[in-house]
């Protein structure tokens, strides 16, 4: 239960409070983009706490899109992405983890920050997208 509580406190509540804080500054055609994760869409053992929090973030997207219209709310669910978040591991420790996930991913690699930035840009730039969560995981959720 501590994992679930921590996941909500670290992931769900900050998305909610950030959206609330941004509302006064958004024009009627403004856009909010949430970041969930592939664990919101795929059963990955060992991720019940953060997976349920990511699922909650993803579930907020269409609800808030309907409530905040005409403002747009969308989300991106990344897979494994090589970012500074992994800096708690040495390169030698990261390499086998990334290799394992790359082997499970149809595109044959883990993501990078540009992959996720491109997905976010797509959602922000497309004025006809609202209430959608784009899964940007290289196909990891397919269970390769």
UniProtKB/TrEMBL annotation:
GO molecular function, one term: oxidoreductase activity
Domain of life according to the entry: Bacteria
A Pfam family per the record: adh_short_C2
UniProt xrefs under InterPro entries: NAD(P)-bd_dom_sf, SDR_DHRS6-like, SDR_fam
Residues in coiled coil: none
Positions of transmembrane segments: none
UniProt KW keywords: Oxidoreductase
Family that this chain belongs to: Belongs to the short-chain dehydrogenases/reductases (SDR) family.
Protein name: Short-chain dehydrogenase/reductase SDR
Organism the protein comes from: Brenneria goodwinii
């Amino acid at each position: 239960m501590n994992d679930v509580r921590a996941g909500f406190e670290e992931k769900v509540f900050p998305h909610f409070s950030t959206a609330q804080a941004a509302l006064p500054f958004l024009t009627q055609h403004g856009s909010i983009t949430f970041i969930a994760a592939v664990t919101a869409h795929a059963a990955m053992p060992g991720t019940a706490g953060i997976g349920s929090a990511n699922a909650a973030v993803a579930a907020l997207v269409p609800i808030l899109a309907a409530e905040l219209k005409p403002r747009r709310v969308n989300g991106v669910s990344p897979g494994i992405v090589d970012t500074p978040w992994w800096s708690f591991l040495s390169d030698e420790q990261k390499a086998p983890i990334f290799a394992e996930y790359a082997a499970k991913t149809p595109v044959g690699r883990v993501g990078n920050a540009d992959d996720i930035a491109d997905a976010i840009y797509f959602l922000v730039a497309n004025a006809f997208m609202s209430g959608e969560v784009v899964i940007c995981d290289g196909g990891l959720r397919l269970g390769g």
